[in-house]
Each structure stands twice: as C-alpha cells, then as structure tokens.
Design goal:
Strand order of the largest sheet: 1-2-3-4-5-7-6
InterPro entries: Acyl_CoA_acyltransferase (IPR016181), GNAT_dom (IPR000182)
Number of helices: 5
CATH topology: Aminopeptidase
GO molecular function: acyltransferase activity, transferring groups other than amino-acyl groups
Mean pLDDT: 87
Protein name: N-acetyltransferase domain-containing protein
CATH class: Alpha Beta
Shape: globular
Helix content: 25-40%
Structural class: alpha+beta
CATH superfamily: Gcn5-related N-acetyltransferase (GNAT)
Number of domains: 1
CATH architecture: 3-Layer(aba) Sandwich
Largest sheet: 7 strands, mixed
Length: about 180
Amino acid sequence: MTTAPAIDLRRYGHNDLADIRQTLLDVHADAYFERRHEEFVQRFPWFVDHWGQREGFACVVAYEGGEPIGFTYGAPGEPGREWWREYLAEEPADPSTFSVSELMLKPKRRKQGLGERLHTALLADRPEALAVLTVDTKRPRLQALYEGWGYRKVGERQPFPDSPLYAVMLLDLRAPSAS
C-alpha cells in the first residue's frame, strides 16, 4: 500500500519574499490557468510585491512531496484604512486587523480541507483582533465556506475598475470559534 506524501506547511515573512516569489507566481499560474488572459489576473505579480513589501507580511506555503500546492498570505492592515471600516456603524473596541490577501490552491488540491489548514496556520498566534478578506460575489459557495470558518459579510466593494465586486468578510480572531 502506498501512502500519499505528507503535507508540509512552511511559514515565511517579509524577508523571505525573494525566495518564495516565484513559487507564489507558479501556484497562481496553475490556479488561474483558465483565466490567464484576463488583465486583472495578469496583475498578480504586482499584488505579491505590494503585500510582500509590507512590514508584518506573513505567508504559509503548502508542499506535498517537495512541490508547492497552495499558499495563503496577508499583512496587518493600515490603522484607519481597514477594508471593513466603512461598513460598520461602530468601531470594534480593538480594531487591529490582519488582511488576508490571498488563499490559493492548485485545482487538484481543492475541496480537501487544505485551504482551511493554510488559513488556520496563517492566523495562528496573530496579535490582531480581527481578520478581513474579500471574496468574489459571484462565488457564493466560497463565501459560505468562509462563513463556516467564522467570517461574516459586512459589505461589498470593487477596489479596482477591472476587479470583481467583492464581499468584504470580517472574522473576530478572539472569538472561540475563530480559525
């Protein structure tokens, strides 16, 4: 009987970006192969660099048999400029926020619980009180998945003219059910 290779989750930070940048681009190329000609999808390297240059950038890459199969990354939000701010009537007692920018898996690795493992590893031991992410409003099953992880939709935004309309989702990292 052959056993599948174990999944190895590796953590990286701001100073590691040069070493992992191509890995992130390669997984993205696999994940978005069908949409590779869309202008917004083609700008992914800019997003990697934008997030990776931020102090507090954190990334978790999943490897199987030494091959990267998925990743997630983000960084602390800029105080006063968090994605959720315009949608809440009252500011939380502690508004510190970690922005989850990407969670991406190679297509063959989806729907196996790996996304949640990556997400949990990324947010483990974060000092912020909240996590925020956005999800394409045309992907209601993905939104429901995040709701199952404890997120709640607080609004919608389109950050760029050529980007999808996104649901803005907020997670209380100090709640008992937070991932």
